[in-house]
Amino acid sequence: MSQAAxxxxxxxxxxxxxxxxxxxxxxxENRGAVIGLVFFIFLVLLAIFAPxxxxxxxxxxxxxxxxxxxxxxxGGRADYLLGTDAVGRDMLSRLIFxxxxxxxxxxxxxxxxxxxxxxxxxxxxxxRGWVDTAIMRVMDIxxxxxxxLLALVLVAILGPGLVNAMIAISLVYQxxxxxxxxxxxxxxxxxxxxxxxKVAGAGHTRLMFKTILPNCMAPLIxxxxxxxxxxxxxxxxxxxxxxxxxxxTPEWGTMLAEAREFIQSKWWVVTLPGVAILIxxxxxxxxxxxxxxxxxxxxxxx
Length: 302
What we know:
Elements: H1 2-29, H2 31-48, H3 50-53, H4 91-127, H5 129-143, H6 147-158, H7 162-188, H8 192-199, H9 204-212, H10 217-240, H11 252-258, H12 267-295
Helix pairs in contact: 1-12, 2-4, 2-12, 4-5, 4-7, 4-10, 5-7, 6-7, 7-10, 8-9, 10-11, 10-12, 11-12
């Protein structure tokens, strides 16, 4: 018995490594995706080690260093490499700690949207009938509103704050996962392995979440990656409008909102958070394109 198990483990391990090698082959063909992946790993490390890397406390105000320009400009100081904001807080430290909040928002929003959306999508695609109709009509109603506007209304009802912003954004993103999961389940439901599992006596829950769902994950993973970047962008937009993270939280959108009056006079206070948002969202989108190329069999070249 043990020899058979060992033989099975040895035989499946090469196939798993072959699948990983195939995935990396198609992913690495997209150079933009590799660059995005490298930058994303850099952001994760920056967020984890932010307390060790940041030269100052992001909320500490240095009254003798208000609106100090970056070190390469006249009047800059070596203590504040990227300058300071209107109340004397170090811009570099706030940008580094802002990485934590942006990645946290992306992880929470994507996880909530993915889990809840997949559950409803699998149920709708598996049972069809009135259950499918009821779930999809609710999703259609949510999709009928502009996503940022709906998130803004929900945050206005729940109250300003980062937690409420994440809840609102995750609710807005759920229909995309519901529709993807439903379509994937509908295409997989009639396949031979599902029929065989049903004949073997598998119940509905096992069929939905253990038999069918694992074979539907490729498009969901790609959508999760793209939703991750969109969540960061929407959270920054809500922060800019004063409905997301509240001062003195070093969140990039909130930093932009605090610097609006200095757009024409103190460029670094506005430009640096905007560039951080731009590069982060671009890197994650490039990584999402690579995942799509690697996971979608229609895009794989022979």
